[in-house]
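[Solved] Which block belongs to which protein?

Original post:
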Amino acid sequence: MKTTGDQQLVKRINRSALLRLLRAQPGLSRAQLAHESGLTKSTVSLLARELIDEGWLAEDKIANGPGQGRPSTPLRVSATAMGLVGLEVAVDCLRVVCASLTGEVLWCADESLHSHAPSEVCHQAAKLIARAFDAQAQLGLQMLGIGVGLPGALDKASGLVRFAPNLGWRNVDFLSELKRALAACGLPEVVLHIQNEADTAALGEYEFAGGHDDDTLIFVNCDVGVGAGIVLNDHLFTGAQGLAGEIGHSIMQMDGQRCSCGRRGCAETFIGARALARGASRPDGMTHAGQYLGVLLQNLWTTFNPSVLVAGGASCVRHPELVRAAQEALNACAANAGMVAPQVRTARFGLLAPAVGAAAMVLHHQLRPVPAGLHPAAATIA
């Protein structure tokens, strides 16, 4: 029996519980936290002091009114002590952001991608991340970790990129390559997470855009490729091989055009950026593409029944009419079934959604000490 390990895990779970309560309800006092969490007041006081000393929480000052006793001190998640770095590796560029624990973008930069060779991508990314480190240092923030989003299917245990057709990658050990590149730039070792770009964008909406109260959220990322990030029961759903959400490679026409993945008639050949460019000269080009996007949204809705559908990516940012046409097509599908379609909203962070989401991924993992599907008694402490 691992008594010490079990005690440390319980402490991490309790700390996480307090942080998540304060993210949902800023301004709770220690007494209110004890009531909401079910923890004892002494435990809450001890943990709150630790979290304040480490920079996770801050106390709000309130003035005493006449005739009042000592008031309870409101607590909130601090936006000024810790920072998160998020990197998006897109098909044609790199984007990096520094974000606070509350989701404010404090610094951002982007560069055109020089090469698709994995080693070159990692070398360029490491230099951009070094600039982010400098920006955080100037802001006086402590680095909590780095998140990376890229357009491919990943093995979440090893960090191996199984398949990234628009980068031309198969079975690339990107995580190890990036760690070496960061070390070569003289950067300190920090927590590093890697995930599909649509998944990170979904986490950004879930953690930073008020979506964490919803049980199910789906982010559809429309760029060169098309993918979906799926949050189910407070965790990312990535599937057995990391392929969940690869909706750009769901087949919409059996004998259609050949896709970058090798199949024919994939959704990407209808609503990917290359397809949109080809159809831009047609008067109804975006409406036609939006109908296909609406069908994809309809299929996601009937499969997962999400609370929120978010449409993002460069194509949705640059062509808002694409989202409007998709909503109309979704509404029509729902009306035919005698139902009301869910509302589709656009990404809060625009083109920065995957990068901000990559930063949010660091926080997401910090606040969930027990992985999805793992019983607390079976968890191990690193």
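(Second protein starts here: sequence line, then its structure tokens.)
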Amino acid sequence: MLQIYNTLTKRKSIFKPMTPNKINMYVCGMTVYDYCHIGHARTYVSFDMIRRYLKYLGYKVNYVRNITDIDDKIIRRAKENNEDYQALTSRFITAIDEDEKALNILPPDSAPKATEYIDQMIDVIKKLIDKKLAYIASNGDVYYAVHQFPDYGKLAHQDVGKLRAGARVSIVEAKTDPLDFALWKLAKPDEPSWDSPWGKGRPGWHIECSTMALDCLGEHFDIHGGGFDLIFPHHQNEIAQSEGLTGKTFVNTWMHTGFVTVNKEKMSKSLHNFFTVREVLKNYAPEVVRYFLLTSHYRSQLNYSEELLDQSKTALERLYLTLRDTPVETQYFASQTQTQYFASLRFHEAMQDDFNTPVALSVLFDLSREINKTKDPKLAGTLKYLCNLLGILEQDPEIFLKQHIVDMALSESEINHFIQQRDQARKEKKWVLADKIRDELLQKNIIIEDNAQKTRWRRLTV
């Protein structure tokens, strides 16, 4: 049975959707003021993998991923560029869509934009004020009153007193509590703004996601996800807003992806140590990048390096070579062999253990080695099917290898041709020539195995 780690409970448990065979899932999307970097891609590839596997299990998944298209960073970047903020966000939304398509990330079922929900946000803020969960500060901004929500800090497992003691408050802020956060910000000169009961202004970041999630998925839904850095304060603030408003549990299962690091530091734009997807795709095929992002468990840290990308490139090449050299049986489910059954069983055991892709990939390589030995079309069909569940190995092997592998490995027909030449040399007792052909094949990662009946060969796989 599927088990998922829940950030809220800090443990894995058997996943049970609220409605049989249906899952509502919300994932925080990007703030669109710059290109998507590998850290973002790690989150979106991970949840794409999760969504694909949930659908394989038979669930109808309603996947919502928002777009933050109004925010301090957006306004600041638009001013720096002397560009209209809408032109800026439109340009980066297009770029992000292109990057995700390249990485074989399926589009969400809904992609609501914050600016499309201003009226609903104002309505939510009004209700929070009426419930004494929010207040109008002396500077005209509207803040959420954290002390009015007793469970504040439960997602991050933080003590509110310690959080309050460590909070920093600017002297220009009019909060009554250091932990209070803005729901509505009065507009400054030359900033985008909307009319509200509290004057022209714009929403705070946290209220955007609560409002869009409530509208798209309802007051209580199955899964909410995002990067590890969103646990506090963003997702904690979403809980405070939503549960304070409705009195209901907001989300059953909270899922968070680990950081991508560079030299053991978190990859982020603020640290200027990030690599955009576009930069990386100049040197690596998109499928190589997707594979790399799946090599580490989604909750663990993933260190970015060209060495690891090169290893992913080699690994993906091996899988494609296996499919190129063995015919793929599409009706492989009929009368499964024992090898097929146990390979599939091990793969699904890994995936149902909180989507453990590193173990699942190791199963695929065990299967690949067996295929290279047996040339079994049913096993090849199983390999392709299981890889497709992860969003990899969907291309024609010959096309992928020719487009992306510079040092093209020998095809099966070429290998057989060399073996025929070697067999002839051995028949004529030209041992030096026979050894030379064997050594040349070994340099191409082809291992020759001689026996009394015929010469067999196999690829040396990772």
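Accepted answer:
You had them paired correctly. Confirming on the second one: DSSP finds 16 helices and 15 strands in the chain.
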